[in-house]
Specification:
The complex is a heterodimer of chains A (152) and B (150). A six-stranded antiparallel sheet of chain A has the order 5-6-3-1-4-7. Helix content of chain A is 18%, strand content 18%. Chain A has 152 residues and is of the alpha+beta class. Chain B is α+β, with helices and mostly antiparallel strands and 150 residues long. Chain B is built from three helices and eight strands, in the order αββααββββββ. In chain B, helix 2 packs antiparallel against helix 3. In chain B, 39% of the residues are buried. Classes of the chains: A alpha+beta (152), B alpha+beta (150). At the A-B interface, strand 2 and helix 3 of A face helix 2, strand 3, strand 4, strand 5 and strand 7 of B.
């Protein structure tokens, strides 16, 4: 398996291994209303960054949050860190990102070493129309690849 | 004319009836009677109202703004009450930073209406994975209905 080259140097994430092309990723879905009782299909906006609204609401400025499956488990990944509530969880692959020209970089948090971000899906570029349109299509493509692995 | 009709969407459902082309609606555009969907719309409206009254359901960055929820609920009520309203969406989710997004799917077509501030929404249509159209919806102060702007 090949290693992904990232824009971050290895020493900045010494406590987590570099991301491998074969890795799987998780993303938590927000609470929502679904006509079929479950996210089917997974909403396109689930793969869009929170938009920038103001200096106080910068949105997902560093990228879309995901969790590395190899550094966590489904139960933990499906648990909201703020209140412990379980939410729906979807899974997709690093290879899927590559296919669309996207990347993923580790951004381990104190309480969650599995945290990573997809930097191309960020709220800053979301403000630029041409970038926004690309992001919208990427989000649609990703939702088609993602699979629901936990239903809250 | 509902926003989906005017947007040339081909959202297809069971119990459909053919809309005659008028005012730019392309031939073959299929629309549904909102009556068949009224109960589904009501469920969606009830859920959005629940979100408004229970802010602790969401992380701070995801809680829909009251103004935006009001606009989304108003739109939903308009469709539920109208005989030729838009069909109920496949999903309604908070889309971050106070916004709410409704999505419709039918085969190769996906339409997303995102409510972004009081009385304003964006509408995006995708066909076979490509973004083909984006428009702005603004509430007409007289009719209080969302209308396409460009």
């Amino acid at each position: 398996m090949s290693l992904i080259s990232t824009s971050e140097t290895q020493h900045e994430h010494e406590d987590v291994p570099p991301i491998d092309a074969g890795e799987r990723l998780y993303r938590r879905l927000l609470l929502g209303w679904y006509k079929h009782g479950k996210p089917d299909p997974i909403p396109q906006k689930a793969f869009m960054p929170r938009p920038w609204v103001s200096e106080d609401r910068p949105g997902d400025y560093d990228g879309l949050s995901v969790n590395r499956a190899c550094l966590t488990n489904i139960e933990t990944a499906a648990t909201r860190p703020d209140n412990g509530q379980k939410v729906d969880l979807v899974e997709f692959g690093v290879a899927d990102l590559h296919e669309f020209g996207l990347s993923v970089i580790p951004k381990p948090l104190k309480a969650d070493k599995s945290h990573a971000v997809i930097p191309e899906l960020n709220s800053v570029d979301h403000c630029k129309l041409t970038e926004l349109e690309k992001m919208e299509e990427w989000a649609l493509a990703l939702r088609k690849r993602a699979v629901l692995v936990f239903k809250a | 004319m509902t926003v989906l009709q005017g947007y040339s969407s081909e959202i297809v459902r069971d119990e459909t009836r053919l809309a005659t082309g008028a005012g730019g609606t392309p031939a073959g555009a299929l629309v549904t009677s909102a009556r068949a969907d009224a109960q589904v719309w009501k469920q969606a409206i009830d859920q959005m109202l629940h979100w408004k009254s229970s802010p602790s359901l969401f992380e701070a960055n995801d809680q829909p703004d009251d103004d935006i929820l009001d606009t989304a609920v108003d739109y939903a009520v308009d469709q539920m009450d109208s005989e030729d309203g838009d069909p109920a969406p496949t999903s309604i989710i908070p889309s971050g930073s106070g916004r709410v997004a409704m999505e419709w799917n039918d085969g190769p077509v996906t339409v997303v209406i995102e409510f972004i501030k009081l009385g304003v929404a964006t509408m995006t249509e995708f066909r076979r994975g490509k973004l083909v159209r984006r428009s702005r919806l603004v509430r007409n102060p007289r009719s209080r209905q969302l209308e396409l702007r460009g």
